[in-house]
């Protein structure tokens, strides 16, 4: 059985998809027999974009024209598309041998709230074409029960067509000694010392609810016994968000970092006192178990899948509960017993999300699709 993992273009810069594909490939290999193989459909020499580029002409050509052509020339027994947006590029007669991962249905359900190619007519066409193809795939995989319910509601997939396999947390996300020289250099370089830090990781698009993050920061700045700050990793603040930052006088309290390496992201988690993630919608929410694996307490919303993924290891509130989110963050900062309880629960919860467990699930799916497609 030859498995090909595809469904992304490096130059588009969707790092979450690239990390997912590489993690699945790396962890699937030990589960395969000697006669089986798995490989990534990455072009030699192509570089990963530092920032997300969904609108560049070259990216569009590679994604919508060259990707289907190159895929048609590939020889494989099972194809794994790690991003259902790329399913439009798979030939109809190859769908039976295709496993597609649909992480969420944001482009459909949050139309108009995403600064993405899906907001354009051509992007919507390709995305909807992929959704129409999903029921004909050998297997649809998704990251959470919440996302499965969305898929069943908005596509023609039957319950047995959709299997939940949680994402994994890479082994590099762990608690580390922040007094080490390289960690201290990171803290000093970005001015993170001398204050308690809220952390937000990800984009600044409307569904991320950045306004509530800023509201919590503003309230804590006026009530916490210690200096407070926000470490924002990734994304670009909108004009409205920048105006709110100025209106609330938060400019000097925010450190905004982009393009961090995975090692730097681990340092960011470890440098923070609490991950604040009040999203209105998530299909999984990988930052939650990543923070937990690093020993960072989590305060999050119940938007989308987050309550499912966080379990009993986070303080969970409605995304609009500014009072509750602020109170939980303040309690983490000032109540050492509560902080340690969330840390302990977080380590246990994060251990449920391993790439080895995910790879085992994918191997079973690959074998079944291969068998049902007539591959033995």
Distance separating the two termini: 9 Å
Parts with pLDDT < 50 across at least 5 consecutive residues: none
Average of per-residue pLDDT values? 92
Overall shape: it is: globular
Strand content: 5-15%
CATH class of the largest domain: Alpha Beta
Relative helix content:
40-55%
Using the CA coordinates, give the radius of gyration: 21 Å
Can you say what the CATH homologous superfamily of the largest domain is?
Glycogen Phosphorylase B
| Main sheet strand line-up | 2-1-3-4-5-6
Number of helices: 14
Listing every helix as H and every strand as E from the N terminus to the C terminus, the arrangement reads EHEHEEHHEHEHEHEHEHEHEHEHHH
Secondary structural class: alpha/beta
CATH architecture of the largest domain: 3-Layer(aba) Sandwich
Let me know the largest β-sheet.
Answer: 6 strands, parallel
CATH topological fold name of the largest domain? Rossmann fold
Number of domains: 2
Tell me the number of strands.
Answer: 12
Question: Any chance you could write out the topology, listing elements then pairs?
Answer:
Layout: E1 2-6, H1 15-28, E2 37-40, H2 57-73, E3 78-81, E4 98-102, H3 106-109, H4 121-133, E5 139-142, H5 145-154, E6 162-164, H6 181-189, E7 196-201, H7 210-223, E8 228-233, H8 239-248, E9 254-257, H9 262-271, E10 274-277, H10 287-293, E11 298-301, H11 306-310, E12 315-317, H12 322-334, H13 336-350, H14 355-375
Parallel strand pairs: 1-2, 1-3, 3-4, 4-5, 5-6, 7-8, 7-10, 8-9, 10-11, 11-12
């Amino acid at each position: 059985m030859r498995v090909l993992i595809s469904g992304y273009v490096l130059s588009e810069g969707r790092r979450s998809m690239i990390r997912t594909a590489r993690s699945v490939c790396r962890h699937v290999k030990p589960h395969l027999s000697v006669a089986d193989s798995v490989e990534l459909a990455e072009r030699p020499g192509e570089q990963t974009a530092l920032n997300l580029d969904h609108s560049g002409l070259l990216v569009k050509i590679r994604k919508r024209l060259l990707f289907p052509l190159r895929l048609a020339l590939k020889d494989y027994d099972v194809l794994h598309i790690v991003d259902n947006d790329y399913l439009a590029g798979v030939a109809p007669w190859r769908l039976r041998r295709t496993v597609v991962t649909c992480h969420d249905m944001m482009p459909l359900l949050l139309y108009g709230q995403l600064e993405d190619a899906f907001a354009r007519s051509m992007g919507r066409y390709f995305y909807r074409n992929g959704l129409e193809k999903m029921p004909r795939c050998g297997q649809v995989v998704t990251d959470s029960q919440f996302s499965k319910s969305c898929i069943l509601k908005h596509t023609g997939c039957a319950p047995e067509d959709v299997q939940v396999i949680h994402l994994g947390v890479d082994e590099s996300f762990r608690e580390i000694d922040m007094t080490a020289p390289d960690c201290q250099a990171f803290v000093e370089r970005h001015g993170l010392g001398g204050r308690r830090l809220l952390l937000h990781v990800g984009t600044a698009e409307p569904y991320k609810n950045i306004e509530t993050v800023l509201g919590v920061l503003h309230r804590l700045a006026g009530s916490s016994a210690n200096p407070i700050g926000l470490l924002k990793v990734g994304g670009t603040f909108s004009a409205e968000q920048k105006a709110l930052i100025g209106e609330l006088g938060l400019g000097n309290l925010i450190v905004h970092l982009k393009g961090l390496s995975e090692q730097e992201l681990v340092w960011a988690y470890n440098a923070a006192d609490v991950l604040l993630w009040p999203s209105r919608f998530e299909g999984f929410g990988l930052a939650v178990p990543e923070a937990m694996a690093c020993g960072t307490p989590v305060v999050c919303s119940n938007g989308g899948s987050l309550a499912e993924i966080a379990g009993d290891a986070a303080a969970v509130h409605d995304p609009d509960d500014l009072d509750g989110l602020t109170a939980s963050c303040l309690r983490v900062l000032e109540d050492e017993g509560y902080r340690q309880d969330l840390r302990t629960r977080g380590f246990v919860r994060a251990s449920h999300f391993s790439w080895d467990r995910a790879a085992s699930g994918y191997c079973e799916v690959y074998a079944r699709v291969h068998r049902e497609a007539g591959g033995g």
